[in-house]
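Researcher: I'd like a structural prediction for the single chain below. Treat it as a standalone chain; there are no partners to consider.
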Amino acid sequence: MKCKIFFSILAVAAVLSSCTKDPIAIAANVDCAAVSYLGTIEPMIRQSCGGSSCHGAGASNGDMMTYNKLKPYVNNGTFKGEVLNNQTMPEGGSMTSQQLGQIKCWLDSGALNN
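Model: Treating it as a single chain, here is the predicted structure.
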């Protein structure tokens, strides 16, 4: 009986672990010189993260709609961790390989307000 329970738990764990989403590869061929906060990053964040229930103006889980409001999350590593490393944001969606590459370029170049 104990053996059946063990194998049942093992089977459930295997099924649940297969339900995680595969990470998207971060594009390496992005023209980093063409990436800027105002022209690339801000529009991307507004489109992907700006819903009132997400990270829009006044959101309880962090307003990220301006550079000054986003920068603390960049400085403490939360933004990079959730968007690039864990790829858990945007919630309920995903970014393309190209978009992830653009964010990586911006972060690697100092996350400037340009």
